[in-house]
Design goal:
Largest sheet: 4 strands, antiparallel
Number of strands: 10
Shape: globular
Radius of gyration: 21 Å
Low-confidence stretches: none
Structural class: alpha+beta
Oligomer: single chain
Strand order of the largest sheet: 5-6-7-8
Order of helices and strands: EEHHHEEEEHHEEHHEE
Distance between the termini: 38 Å
Helix content: 25-40%
């Protein structure tokens, strides 16, 4: 007689932040939790991201289109899946801003949301040229390993441009080589480049403010926590 497969796993529903589309998901199981724990112990960001994306695919029955998710979509989905899998509360040891004493604090993952505000995605940079912007997919948002800050900025910026509208003609950026996109960005004035940078800076992100009074010195702390590693 074969061993039974346990549990009728419950299903939940959320809205993908970038699109507002509803997506059903389930808690992750022991086999998926094991992979997540091993990835976390490795400390390798690439391994951790692979484990997270594979978990999201498994827990949404393949319905989550990973290649179309933004970074904030990915973070939000993982946090909600984690909350239903091992509990809504996450305990963190936060250092006091004054004396550096570690303080035990708790985050309620159910209260974490990802507000997405309406922003203008067509940016006019001259009388004849406009740039159509987009939130980059998380895979595009993973900048190539480089210490060149200018190249990092250009990588991020180019991934946020979906098209250039020149004299009424729409030019799809996906059809253009990287060199042509960089040349386009380099031809801008600082003022024009800032217009695009403002859009990038407005990209939604998962963040939460932890408030506590230090157990050692009594200092009142308000610390902003962001990044998926803090909710892993």
């Amino acid at each position: 007689m074969a061993l039974p497969i346990l549990n009728d796993v419950p299903k939940y529903e959320l809205k993908v932040p970038s699109t507002g589309k509803k997506l059903k998901y389930r808690p992750y199981l022991v086999k998926e939790e094991k992979i997540l724990l091993l990835a976390n112990e490795s400390g390798d960001p690439t391994e951790m991201m692979t484990a997270i994306t594979n978990t999201i695919v498994a827990c949404t029955d393949g319905k989550a289109q990973i290649n179309k998710l933004t970074t904030f979509d990915l973070e939000y989905l993982f946090i909600k899946i984690r909350a239903k899998s091992v509990g809504e509360k996450v305990t963190l040891q936060m250092p006091c801003s004054e004396c550096k004493q570690k303080n035990e604090t708790t985050i309620d993952l159910d209260k974490i949301e990802c507000p997405v505000h309406d922003v203008e995605k067509i940016i006019e940079i001259s009388e004849t040229v406009s740039v159509e912007m987009q939130w980059p997919g998380f895979q595009e948002d993973q900048s190539e390993e480089t210490d060149d800050q200018a190249e990092i900025a250009f990588n991020i910026m180019s991934s946020c441009i979906s098209a250039v509208i020149s004299n009424g003609e729409r030019i799809d950026i996906s059809d253009e080589p990287k060199e042509a996109i960089y040349a386009f960005l380099e031809s801008m004035t600082s003022t024009q480049f800032v217009l695009l940078s403002d859009f990038v800076r407005s990209m939604p992100q998962i963040e939460h403010t932890i408030v506590f009074d230090c157990s050692a010195c009594g200092e009142h702390n308000e610390i902003e926590v962001k990044g998926i590693q803090n909710f892993f």
